[in-house]
């Protein structure tokens, strides 16, 4: 399956809604989108993975890389995720301690 990205502004935040699979083949598309946002001065990013069907270690690496880039500018990268199978991946990898995980875009945007 392919990966589709939809980017929109929500106040001071930029929301990237992701659908499909984030794996070794599609992760570069997400990496490029996050890099373009940071290069454009967008340092408060919300990645909505509610419509993601599969996430592998490459995808996690892209999210961590995006987080490092925005933090270099005192920014934030938050993740919207309520799917148990994806939350389990974040828990197993210990990334629940790294990422702010939220139940909705509205909750993530209200965070800061």
Order of helices and strands: EEHEHEHEH
Mean pLDDT: 95
The computed structural class is alpha/beta
Q: Label the overall shape.
A: globular
What gyration radius follows from the Cα positions, in whole Å?
A: 13 Å
Identify the CATH homologous superfamily.
STAS domain
CATH class category: Alpha Beta
> Which architecture does the CATH hierarchy give at level 2?
2-Layer Sandwich
Domain module tally = 1
State the separation between the terminal residues, measured CA to CA.
34 Å
Q: Total strand count, please?
A: 5
Taking the sheet with the most strands, its summary is: 5 strands, mixed
CATH topology: Transcription Regulator spoIIAA
- What's the tally of helices? 4
Poorly predicted runs of 5 or more residues: none
Question: Beta fraction of the residues?
Answer: 25-35%
Residues in helix, %: 25-40%
What is the topology, as strand order, of the major beta sheet? 1-2-3-4-5
